[in-house]
Amino acid sequence: MRRRSFAFGVAATAAAVAVPASAQQRLKVVASFSILGDMVREIGGDRVELTTLVGPDQDAHTYQPTPSDARALAAARVLVVNGLGFEGWIDRLARAAPFAGTRVVASAGVATIAGAAAGHGHGHGHAHGGGEESLSTRKTQAAPKAAPDPHCWQDVANGARYARNIAQALVAADAANAAHYRQRADAYDRRLTELDAWVRAQIGTVPAAKRKVITGHDAFGYFARAYGVAFRAPVGISTENEPSARDVAALIRQIRSEGIKALFIENMSNPKLVEQIARDAGGVVGPALHVDALSKPGGPADTYERMFRHNVPALVAGMLRN
Questions:
Q1: What angle do CA 135, 123, 157 make, to 5 degrees?
Q2: pTM for the full predicted model
């Protein structure tokens, strides 16, 4: 436990007196990144004091925690993480804080898919589960066991599972407000059920043969499985990976042979590689997709629900060009 000076203690006491009792009693929750933060906000409402570590338009794959993150985590009672290796830095941060509360793995209970099966199948491991592997290497070596793809939230049904896990954790940590959390979670679940049906209807407007998309990295494996769209990407499931020249050339040949025109970049990634592939393969780069991070408040994808409302029409318009 940190030692505090007497002066700091007096200041903290004075500040506490000035804060309304209702604000003091709010459940302190830390969410690892913006999508989880939005889910906590939807379920917790004004009964939680939320800190989101990796904010809008930031990349959780490559994030470097700050001292303020450690302070927020040390004071929190609940930590909500995605799990599956998505936040490779979270264990170090929790030890350094230190964090003594309850950790909630939002993806618990989701039927995962292997990272290599999530997109173009180039055998990329996650940032914390393996490095880049070239096509030529795979001809002479057995492929390593693929890490699970952590991007489970790209299937809205999985997002609903996340929300239920979060709601259960809030209820357990703050029983006095259990009815509040359950009511908001039920309302959120109904909206997500409607959202899932809307996504299926929108994708259904695209002929099956045209449902092919190129994205910056393999973040859409669960979307592909749930909604019947084939995704290809030059980078693996982590934005920390770098594709080999052989992989990029193979992808360009595939784009040309299959006539794929729909290419997209993500809001938190470098667009140069996808733009280069589009030029070389004759594709068209569509609007930026929000995949691992929401947009800033007021942007086109500043909530989990609005993320799908933004991404899906863009994907549909791109696929119809194929």
A1: 150
A2: 0.79
